[in-house]
Design a protein that fits this description.
By secondary structure, the chain is of the alpha/beta class. The protein has 2 domains: 118 residues, NAD(P)-binding Rossmann-like Domain (Rossmann fold); 269 residues, no CATH class. The strands form 5 sheets. Strands 8, 9, 10, 11, 14, 15 and 16 form a 7-stranded mixed beta sheet that branches. It has a 6-stranded mixed beta sheet with strand order 3-4-2-1-5-6, with helices on both faces. Strands 13-12-20 form a 3-stranded antiparallel beta sheet, with no helix packed on it. α1 crosses α5, α9 packs across α10 and α9 runs antiparallel to α11. The protein starts with a helix and ends in a 5-residue tail after the last strand.
Length: 400
């Protein structure tokens, strides 16, 4: 994908034909303001339904009640960027009831798609029936992966939200729709080879090396004849994925806050960002001042994935005391929240999960507290939804 300056200018011109209002004076709203400013755009105001925020300011912009926004712009006089993920549906419904056109409603995390590609992508939540259906398939895949790992002495652990689910719910987080497992780079490489021979026919190993439109930089085990599709921005051809579980490699890292650890982090993040820009998941403008990310963007994606794995494999030759899932690092997450002492991940226990037993790190409390803080605290009820951000559609039909 070549960065199209002419198209960007035209999309910005269309977007700025009307004043810009950011609905939600929150962290998400601040993110929307930062994205707009990165493109040289100005918002006119923040709007929020919380009376305590009225009359205050955020980013030197006034925060006004919805009635004042409607009085000033009517239902057609402004482009409104919703800055909240949690309350997106409620805010959108409120705007639509006031006569605001869907074409004038935008989502904070899709702003760069609007400005660079002219696509106004919206998030949507999955129904409880869809979540349950996908969880049944995910459990089926997890059981198949567990069987292969047991037969070939590959050590894995449940991770991220899947590990929280095992600890807190003895199964899936009720509103969660994915599964993450992690294993050492050595076991990860063995698993990929073994899957090609021993993975049952109803499943498929999905690799970032096999599809230039592939959005992710890791491998998945997918159930065939299921569909969860994403249309990439740089092509008219949809990249299709079925319901899948994520397989995450754990790599050695050097001591946190050391210069060599910062270099390892920098290279890994740049390779990842450059790859994501190629398929439109990250804005080109977010890397235009970052030389390493631009280089990563220019090289072929398959080479990008190869280098990411190769660099981390080299680091694995060193006898370090720390490890992390480096392939998922980003600038928004402090390194200390993603790095663990090796001893923490070495001991495992079998944990109950949806009536089955799967492996998890014994000291799950240390791992989860490091990432999430108080992981036993349930989120607000309004936040307990499974959202697809980048234009995903969901279908579990028997054929594609």
């Amino acid at each position: 994908m070549i960065f199209n300056t002419k198209r960007l200018k035209e999309n910005i011109r269309k977007f700025t034909e009307k004043p810009i209002v950011i609905f939600s004076a929150s962290a998400g709203g601040r993110s929307a303001l930062n994205v707009l400013r990165r493109y040289g755009l100005k918002a006119d105001m923040f709007c929020d339904s919380d009376p305590e925020k009225w009359g205050c300011s955020l980013g030197r912009l006034p925060i006004v009640p919805p009635d004042e926004m409607y009085e000033k712009f009517g239902s057609t006089g402004a482009n409104i960027v919703i800055g909240s993920v949690t309350y997106y549906t409620e805010i959108e419904t409120q705007l639509l009831e006031q006569g605001v056109s869907p074409d004038n409603i935008f989502y904070v995390w899709s702003l760069f798609m609007v400005l660079e590609h002219g696509i106004n992508s919206k998030p949507f939540s999955l129904s409880q029936d869809e979540i349950k259906k996908s969880q049944q398939v995910l459990l089926e895949i997890l059981k198949a992966v567990h069987k292969i790992c047991e037969e070939h002495e590959i050590h894995y652990t449940l991770f991220y939200g899947t590990l929280i689910g095992a600890v807190r719910h003895k199964g899936f987080i009720p509103w969660d729709d994915d599964v993450d497992i992690a294993m050492s780079r050595k076991d990860y490489n063995r698993f990929l080879k073994i899957c090609k021979e021993f993975l049952p026919d109803e499943y498929e190993l999905i690799s970032p090396f096999e599809d230039n439109n592939f959005t992710y930089n890791l491998h998945h085990v997918m159930k065939k004849n299921t569909l969860c599709s994403l249309r990439p921005i740089n092509t008219s051809k949809p990249a299709k994925l079925g319901i899948k579980i994520d397989i995450l490699p754990i790599d050695n890292v050097f001591r946190v806050n050391s210069r060599i650890a910062e270099l390892q982090s920098k290279i890994s993040i740049c390779l990842r960002k450059g790859s994501l820009v190629k398929v439109g998941v990250v804005s080109f403008r977010s890397i235009q001042k970052d030389f390493l990310s631009i280089i990563a963007y220019l090289i072929p994606r398959k080479l990008n994935f190869y280098l990411l794995g190769k660099i981390n494999s080299i680091v694995n030759c060193f006898n370090t005391d720390y490890c992390a899932i480096i392939s998922q690092w980003s600038n928004s997450i402090p390194m200390r929240e993603r790095v663990f002492h090796k001893n923490v991940l070495e001991e495992r226990v079998l944990m109950d999960f949806e009536g089955e037993k799967f492996w998890a790190v014994k000291d799950y409390d240390a791992v989860l507290k490091n990432i999430y803080g108080n992981y036993m605290l349930l989120p607000l009820k309004s936040a307990r939804e499974a959202y697809r951000r980048y234009g995903f559609s969901f279908d579990t039909s028997d054929s594609r």
